[in-house]
Amino acid sequence: MDKQAKIYIAGHGGMVGGAVVRALRDQGYASLLTRSRRELDLLNQAAVEAFFVAERPDVAVIAAARVGGIHANNTYPADFIYENLAIAQNTIHAAYRAGVKRLLFLGSTCIYPKLAEQPIREDSLLTSALEPTNEAYAIAKIAGLKLCEFYRRQYGVCYHSAMPTNLYGPGDNYHPQNSHVLPALIRRFHEAKLSGAPEVMIWGTGTPLREFLHADDAAAGIIHLLQLESPPDWVNLGCGEDISIGDLARLVMKTVGYEGALVFDTSKPDGTPRKLTDISRIKATGWTPQIGIEDGVAMAYQSFLEEQASGQLRE
């Protein structure tokens, strides 16, 4: 990818989009296009088309999405499927009409079946039923992946996708109810430490296994994919290792320095029992993650403290 390329990053204000912007700048890419939600509503088809026609980027990275944890996905499924479908179809089609030759769409590993064989390979897509708690979001992301695949097949444009696992890091969302598991744990243990709470309650049994990738590793993987002349239609973007929710909670507890009790609310849903990705496809192209979970959690907690102190914490 030419260092002079004009690159549009949709969702630059989010965790992964922000990480992509930082990484591109660090690598000397100077012509970066960004728009806030207030400046460009990606749900507005006409506005998105007008933006692409006016700016004519060489490359587009679609990192914008309506995201949330189990509670948010379960509570707002109509919002999740509508908004994410709209973002995908509006950006991908507008990019094609404006002559954008290279586009990378970010999905999620929740696109795969609930009971997919572990570790999950890319070819397990659409082989059996999805996890019900995030079905709406997953369907929208599958649609975006397929849009890229079919536009590439029919029109010859290099539109491809990456399916990140659970991401965390600077700029994460720490909303008390609607955040993902790792930022939720960081906030809960931090607040319990400050208040002197005797215990912290965690949803579920603690036994489900999850894979986590630091946002800076994800950004490095995305830029790596954009530099490939002929990338796969879609790849898993993960670390290839998992950890139980219980062990993750204990790691966060130790990192934060909370000394109370850890309690599991087994009346709450666990979600998918295990979700580990097979990352052999992207590793075969020359990329591997660099940040382990212990270092990553320590980095994430430091980012949380800095964002909270500066009044920039997303919640």
Please outline the helices and strands.
Blueprint: E1 7-10, H1 15-26, E2 32-33, H2 45-55, E3 59-62, H3 70-75, H4 77-97, E4 102-106, H5 135-155, E5 158-164, E6 166-168, H6 181-195, E7 199-203, E8 209-210, E9 212-214, H7 215-226, E10 234-237, E11 243-244, H8 245-256, E12 261-265, E13 274-275, H9 280-283, H10 293-310
Parallel strand pairs: 1-2, 1-3, 3-4, 4-5, 5-10, 6-9, 7-12, 8-13
Antiparallel strand pairs: 8-11
Features:
Rossmann fold; 315 residues; 10 helices; six-stranded parallel beta sheet; alpha/beta; three-stranded mixed beta sheet
Describe the model.
The chain is an alpha/beta fold and about 325 residues long. It has a domain at about 5-175 and about 210-240 and about 275-290: Rossmann fold (3-Layer(aba) Sandwich), CATH 3.40.50.720. The protein has 10 helices and 13 strands. It has helices at about 15-25, 45-55, 70-75, 75-95, 135-155, 180-195, 215-225, 245-255, 280-285, 295-310, and strands spanning about 5-10, 30-35, 60, 100-105, 160-165, 165-170, 200-205, 210, 210-215, 235, 245, 260-265, 275. A 6-stranded parallel β-sheet has the order 2-1-3-4-5-10, with helices on both faces. A 3-stranded mixed β-sheet has the order 11-8-13. Strands 6-9 form a two-stranded parallel ribbon. β1 (about 5-10), α1 (about 15-25) and β2 (about 30-35) form a beta-alpha-beta unit. α6 (about 180-195) crosses α8. The longest helix is centred in the first third of the chain and has 21 residues, at about 75-95. The radius of gyration is 19 Å and the shape is globular.
